[in-house]
Automatic annotation (TrEMBL):
GO terms for molecular function: kinase activity. It comes from Mesorhizobium onobrychidis. InterPro entries: BphY/WalK/GraS-like (IPR050351), HATPase_C_sf (IPR036890), HATPase_dom (IPR003594), His_kinase_dom (IPR005467), HisK_dim/P_dom (IPR003661), HisK_dim/P_sf (IPR036097), Sig_transdc_His_kin-like_C (IPR004358). This is histidine kinase. Keywords: Kinase, Membrane, Phosphoprotein, Transferase, Transmembrane, Transmembrane helix, Two-component regulatory system. Gene3D superfamilies: 1.10.287.130, Histidine kinase-like ATPase, C-terminal domain (3.30.565.10). The keyword DNA-binding does not apply. Residues 202-424 form the Histidine kinase domain. The keyword Aminoacyl-tRNA synthetase does not apply.
Amino acid sequence: MADMGGTEQRSTAQLVATRLWNSRLLLAAGIVAVLTVYGFADVTGYVVLLACAVLLLAAAMLPAGVARQSAEDAAAIEAGGLQQLSGEYLAAAVADPLIIFDRTATIVHANAAAFAAFGGIAPGMLLSLKFRAPEMQALLDSILSGAAASDVVDYTEKLPVERAYRVSASSVGHGTDLYVLVFKDQSEARRIDRMRADFIANASHELRTPLASISGFIETLRGPARNDPAAREQFLQIMQNQTGRMARLIDDLLSLSRLEMKPYLKPGTEVDLRQTLDSVIDSLGPLARENGVAIERDFAEGPLNVPGDRDELFQVFENLLENACKYGQSGGRVVVTIAHSDDGPEPGIDVTIRDFGPGIPEEHIPRITERFYRVDVENSRTQKGTGLGLSIVKHILTRHNARLSIKSEVGKGAAFTVHLPAHGRLTT
């Protein structure tokens, strides 16, 4: 109870203080008037103090009406400002396509975004003629019949390009006989959802294949090959290879995940491309010899430094050189080139890894960096590929403000060129 009393006293004190502050001009004028009378008339000090007390009491009591008047004035100003805004101005301020229509489903107004999204609409046109999809007809019927004050449906516009929208319809105010449609573009969200679903399906398929193989060999080893040492050794080797394939796939999936979660690259960090490429070539020397491929160097003179993360760029060149050794082995050699580039607005350095193998058909080049995309599925799996290597390369290069270009001619090999800025800001 004591706490409640203290709270009420504080609230009362705050109210009185607020009223005194709001009436400060009136209070100051009154005190000045009293002091003026005191200076020019024969008035005692007690009378002056009494007059000041009366002024303070009046200031504390009267401003309630003044506050109400101020609130009314503010509301009037707000209402006046809104009345000056027409529905056309308000519709134009909405970034999404917006259409206002009447009880006959006739378009009254459409904003610029609606004209851009749905060409051919105009005031006076019936919505039922423009949006013939059953879900849109049902939405209009629901709103115009009064069955619902507002409703939402999913709608896909096929032309000029396919776009997916979440469409909301509702009445405008009370008694206006006007209604509004707002189209929220969901195309990008749908595209990301499809990519996520495809990625999960592809990853599951890539893991399911070796698992099925291992499961089958286990059954064979428990059954017909139980007492066959030669078959047992062969099957165990295949199972080990399949297990390694799954491990590589999981490693690549984790690598992609880590790249997406990494923060900004630290500015000011430089990578010596000469030293990095030398390390990559040395690490892949055994693979090159195993495939009968000779790796040749053609490095420019002078410093070859670029901003970036050494481990990530090492991974880029390792993936590209490994692919060249595996898929271009019939050419017998791979050439690694580092050259200064003056093309474009800023100077840079190009690293090209060229093989002389079978090459890549032109129709595959635009999609070759997609996750799990393979030019030759069987050959890729034979070479222990996961289908994620070039996706990792592209992701890392994006973080470095760099890009990858691919040139190939069937029967003459392929050249993968990494264009790195010599200076510049690094991104996520």
